[in-house]
Write a structure and sequence with these properties.
The complex is a heterodimer of chains A (116) and B (425). Chain A has helices at residues 2-16, 58-72, 81-84, 86-90, 96-106; strands spanning 18-22, 47-52, 77-80, 109-113. In chain A, β2, α2 (58-72) and β3 (77-80) form a beta-alpha-beta unit. Chain A is of the alpha/beta class. Chain B has helices at residues 9-18, 38-58, 83-92, 106-113, 136-146, 153-163, 170-175, 190-194, 209-225, 263-266, 295-307, 327-335, 340-350, 355-359, 364-367, 373-380, and strands spanning 2-5, 27-29, 76-80, 123-127, 132-135, 181-187, 229-230, 233-234, 248-250, 275-281, 285-288, 320-325, 352-354, 385-387, 395-399, 406-412, 419-420. Chain B has a four-stranded mixed sheet with strand order 9-6-10-17. In chain B, strands 11-16-12-15 form a four-stranded mixed sheet. The chains are: A alpha/beta (116), B alpha+beta (425). β1 (18-22) of chain A pairs antiparallel with β3 of chain B.
Chain lengths: 116, 425
């Protein structure tokens, strides 16, 4: 039938033809480029900050990390931020810059534990 | 140096990129840390301590940034001109919610953009966690894919603006393990102008613009935000998720009891404004009350329903509830002499949870530090019943739906300020 023949030819042409479609994901636009903190070469003599996000057992994990580092290195200071400000450091809603600034000033290196 | 569990690696990588770090010296321990004996969690530190030391002392940041990438115009991809080929491409790249999409060609996207006065290059915001740039054009692309129409585009744009308000905490909704999702509540004259359903079965799938508008909003947030779920990439860590392809409805102003303001007026907008609010909530909870013959009893059953579910989610902007009363429940409450403010006050005073339910809720360990001092004291003092809300302002009330003795409770965060919809040309 003519209509079927037309349809078949149309389909055949479409399968040969390419179209351009937009990617829907967009590009990543950071508000600012991250600056990494200066790195350390040893834990000796360092203030080691432990930052817990409040999820169960993260504190036990970090406690053990702190104990192991304290045992292996000399003159370390272990800072458990959750003991200083339990709510603020785990849930810095609306004041994350302030909390991060405090954490950065208080320690030479910060180890955080998060996830479930 | 972040330490994460193995299940969260994909989300961590997306978050790092979104924060401007193409690489990050995070350290991975075997999942899980929570839900196991504390000593086992501690011993996981023994297994990775050498790696922690190594990464902390030897890792050097490399170069690499995507900040110079151009957000407009969006990139294009060439594909065979058949629906099957287009959808195969979008499915393989996780550029879909799993349902077929309409190919976002230049012609269709340009037509969609006729629905707004905004310039296509304007960036409405950056969508977490990937921080993809939601340009007006990208929103239009996603709107085309969802099957939306140009006149609906301003609603979708306003919803994205609403979702990106800092107090909304969109990142938390999109990435959490909870079965959260974001819903749209459209209010004002535009509801009837666009035919958005607000009455009987308003949320039920069917031939109504609610479906495409809500779907477009979801696509336009999830895809730029990297909130996708496929075998090797998880931009969300929701344990089960919810099948939320679209959740959009209008306020049923026709059924508002006398003296009850439309929600936008409660929020400080003008009556003539058309606005959209977004709510982050868990799955809606059925408030099924056939027994009550007066409004006070409807409010009491509502309080019991809340008491069984809310369990104080946390601190600021986290312990809220959105109550969409069905018209019959709203009418009964009003006829019993309750204004909307009275109803909020009643629920605030009467929605309580037994102390044991709270401390055994399974989340108390996480949220206890976020509670106000009076709650901490009440728990410590052994008060038998603990109020669910910190203030009546944490309760949002409106009316939607049609006949029946049903209402919906959306437990989540506090009602954000609605965003006024900027009409198209």
């Amino acid at each position: 039938m003519p209509s079927e023949q037309t349809g078949t030819a149309h389909d055949w042409l479409r399968k040969k033809r390419k179209i351009a479609v937009y990617r829907p994901t967009s590009v990543i636009k950071m508000e600012s480029q991250i600056d990494f903190a200066s790195r350390i070469h040893t834990f000796d003599g360092k203030r080691i900050g432990l930052l817990w996000n409040g999820k169960p057992n993260g504190d036990f994990f970090l406690n053990r990390v702190g104990a192991l580092l304290e045992k292996s290195y000399q003159d370390t200071e272990i800072i458990k931020f959750w003991e200083i400000d339990p709510n603020g450091t785990a849930h810095p809603d609306g004041k994350s810059d302030e909390v991060l600034d405090f954490v950065a000033r208080s320690a030479d290196i910060v180890i955080s534990a998060q996830g479930d | 140096m972040p330490v994460i569990t193995s299940a969260f690696v994909s989300l961590a990588e997306i978050c790092c990129i979104g924060h401007g770090a193409m690489e990050m010296p995070f350290l991975v321990v075997e999942h899980p840390l929570g839900g196991i004996p504390p000593e086992d969690a501690g011993s996981k530190a023994d297994s990775v301590i050498e790696n922690i030391i190594d990464r902390a002392t030897k890792w050097v940041p490399g170069a690499g940034s995507t900040s110079s990438q151009r957000a407009y115009p969006a990139e294009t991809v060439s594909v065979t001109d058949t629906p099957e080929a287009v959808n195969d491409l979008f499915y393989r790249n996780a550029w879909t919610d799993g349902l077929p999409v309409i190919a976002p060609t230049q012609e269709r996207v340009e037509n969609m953009l006729k629905g707004t006065r905004l310039k296509p290059e304007q960036i409405i915001g950056l969508i977490p966690p990937r921080m993809g740039a939601a340009t007006v054009q990208v929103i239009a692309i996603n709107a085309v894919m969802a099957g939306a129409k140009p006149e609906q585009l301003p609603v979708i744009i306003a919803a994205i603006k609403s979702a990106l308000q800092p107090e909304v905490k969109l990142r938390q909704w999109l990435t959490t393990t909870r079965p959260n999702f974001v819903s749209m509540f459209v209010q004002g004259p535009i509801v009837k102008e666009l035919g958005i359903h607000y009455g009987q079965s308003a949320l039920f799938p069917g031939p109504k613009p609610n479906a495409a508008i809500g779907r477009a909003f979801n696509l336009a947030t999830r895809l730029p935000g990297g909130v996708i779920s496929k075998p090797d990439t998880f931009g969300t860590m929701t344990t089960l998720g919810v099948p939320n392809y679209s959740f959009c409805l209008g306020e049923n102003e026709d059924a508002l009891p006398e003296g009850w303001n439309p929600l936008r007026v409660d929020s400080g907008c003008k009556l003539e404004d058309s606005v959209v609010s977004v709510f982050g909530t868990t799955m809606p909870i059925m408030q099924n009350d056939h027994d009550s013959t007066n409004g006070r009893d409807v409010l009491i059953s509502t309080c019991y329903r809340i008491g069984g579910h809310l369990v104080r989610l946390g601190g600021d902007n986290r312990g809220g509830i959105v109550i969409l009363f069905g018209p019959e429940h709203a009418d009964a409450i009003s006829k019993d002499g309750f204004s909307k403010e009275d109803a909020k006050q009643f629920i605030y005073e009467n929605a309580k949870i037994p102390r044991e339910w709270l401390v055994k809720s399974g989340t108390w360990y996480i949220v206890k530090e976020q509670q106000p001092e009076w709650v901490k004291r009440a728990v410590a003092d052994g008060e038998p019943m603990i109020p669910q809300f910190n203030s009546p302002e944490e309760i949002t009330i409106s009316v939607a739906g049609g006949a029946g003795k049903q209402s919906l409770l959306g437990i989540g965060y506090i009602n954000p300020k609605p965003v006024v919809i900027e009409r198209g040309p």
